[in-house]
Amino acid sequence: MDYLSRFTKWHQVSYQVLVWTDGKYWQFPINLNTFEQYLGRPSTTEEMESTLAKWREDFPNPKNSEEMVLSQVGRKFYEMFFRNYTRKQWKRDPRDLDASVCGRIPVRTNRDNRFVTENFQALPEEGYTAMFQKMLRHPRITLRLNTDYRNLPKEVSYDRMIYTGMIDEFYQFSEGRLPYRSMRFEPETIQKEFFQPAMQVNYPNDHEYTRVVEIKHATGQKSQVTTIVREYPEDFGPGKEAYYPIPAPDSRELYEKYAAKAKDEKKVTFVGRLATYRYYNMDQVVAMALTEYEKLKSGSSPS
pTM of the entire structure? Predict the structure, then answer.
């Protein structure tokens, strides 16, 4: 936060997600309010905890996302909120994905509806584009778009390259192609002040899209018109952008072959989702970049 504040002021926002299933909106992540909606009456933390204890299935060391969710909330909530959403998003059954995919979503027995609980939750006041534009306004930075990095050594000398693209592409797919998921974003402008009651609504069991985002809830804009964006997961291929590495045993095994090659690189550092083939949130990516900078600065960074 301290570092990025050099380039932006902040607009405070609380990130809230709802789920649309069975014909109504549900609080999510699962918490006491969700449980009360399921029961159709008021309840208590104690009742929720005892009920979940009965619903949970016995997986002391969950090996995949299905086992992870079943061990936390049981089959009822797994089928309501997780199974089909995961299938749409990843085009794989939860039992074929690492436990971390669904395990990163919290389960609470209090009434906290927030998706994340960090003390600092905000967006760049003027947007991410403006923030990055300010970062790039430096005499020692030259920006080149639509440029293949493989052509740069002919024109630019460097001591170290920071590579944030697909690691399998860097090695010209020598070990095979890593799987990724892409997305299609379909915006729609609607002649009403708000379309939905929260910034994000997930659709695990209805429609082809996974979620609808109405960013106006976060930006605080005042208007009688709103724009929503529907998100459709897609296969990655020609003309598509790689958005998500797929966290699964087979892809991890293939990635490790590329990671072994990366360790031998003397002038290249691999950073970010695609280059390290891991799912990171925004705060994690920023922390990763700043940590790597400190290592490079001290001369202790491995490749």
Answer: 0.90
